[in-house]
Amino acid sequence: MGKKLKNSGLVGLGVVAGIAVSLQFSAMAQRPADPALPLDELRQLADVFGLIKSDYVEPVEDKKLLAEAISGMVASLDPHSAYLDKKAYAELREGSQGKFVGLGIEIGQSDDGYIRIVSPIEDSPAYRAGIKAGDLITRLDATPVKGLSLDDSVKKMRGEPHTKVSLTILRKDEPEPLVFHITREEILQKSVKAKIVEPGYAWLRVAQFQEPTVDDLATKITELYRQDPQLKGLVLDLRNDPGGVLQGAIGVAAAFLPKDAAIVSTNGQLPDSRQTFYGRPEYYALRSEGDILAKLPAAIKNVPMAVLVNTGSASASEIVAGALQDYKRATIIGSQTFGKGSVQTIRQLTADTAVKLTTARYYTPNGRSIQAKGISPDLHVNENADGDGLNSLRMREADLAKHLSNDREQEAGKSKRDEAEEQLRILAAERKRKPLEYGSGEDFQLRQALNHLKGLPVQTAKQESQLVQVDPPAAKSPMPK
């Protein structure tokens, strides 16, 4: 990519729910043919192709066989490398732009196998149709959702503009299922939310890193200071943020760090995969003319900060949390993050297909590799006052088969989890909890973050200590080692 980011880089999944990836878009590299190609194995592949064509019980299209062969070859490498057919490639590009064609709902899996509506997006088709948070989807058209993965359910709800889909809904206090016929539209997602939660203290949430995220963040910060010019503390909420556009992560971190600070570095086999990204406009500006962050109130560089993370915080959100932690700019609060620290490059094969290939690992400013380990919070705080709730049930990168190893320190994988943590997972599975609304009055972790910013006691996770008194956070930003 050189010194200027000419292509859109992604570090996250996309869609509504999922595990993070790390992406950069580029054309297929033009390289000379490798003289050491394994000719015998390639002949064997051709022989198998011929056998299927001649002997299989029914005819199979050439394109299907070859696409599946490519897909299997790439998928065998690690959990985040993949062949992207026309539909998958289009969905990935849509997700990075913060828009897609669908119904406009944020969803999650319920305990009984249905799809739970976390929230309808304001002014979306689902919102206008009367879909409510807490509704359970039992059928999509004629298909029962039990047995479908979350990703498969998302695919059924997405489609072409102006086409319809029927949702069968179970709603509390309604005696009979409700059926909604909703027309798909292009949905514009807002990845940044913000509000003054109490006098002098603000909550700023980044739900996913998209192309508009840095601009949206700048707008929200300006609005916060317009409402309260004397902010005494800011909580940056990255919980369940699966990642997204690399420039978004760089820009969000740069908003709070010293000018030109190193944000993240990468290392891999190719020369252009070994580089450092700094908090400069050429590394994060995608949409604005000039430097949108230069217009922010100067106080944003020094306001005391806490960052909320959990097991669902992955990839780009780990870049931000790791950079703010290395510079001692903010206190990281919550639980161990997902541990997605690898970069995937998109190599375009045709006009509408591509390969997503892992090409590098990324590192915090102090040189820490996050891969299969994650960011350890400074203060471990459970999701709820009595335990870590649904967060304990989430998988981490180290749980995934064929995950890339951490090359700089021993990873904290599933095999390293102690009996206490496994017991917390069991207890969380037994308790029936509704999804937490971040930023609400019932948000326990947010309350603990505010207590920390005020220098009040914080209720930390029970396996560490029940209640700790901490010093108010400093606003200094020393350079990392």
TrEMBL record:
* UniProt-listed Pfam families: CtpB_N-like, PDZ_6, Peptidase_S41
| Start and end residues of each PDZ domain | 89-158
Q: Which PROSITE patterns match?
A: PDZ
Single GO BP term: proteolysis
Q: Which GO terms describe its molecular function?
A: endopeptidase activity; serine-type peptidase activity
Identify the GO cellular component terms for this protein: outer membrane-bounded periplasmic space
Q: Which NCBIfam families does the entry link to?
A: prc
Q: What is this protein called?
A: C-terminal processing peptidase-3. Serine peptidase. MEROPS family S41A
Query: What is the scientific name of the source organism?
Result: Pseudoduganella namucuonensis
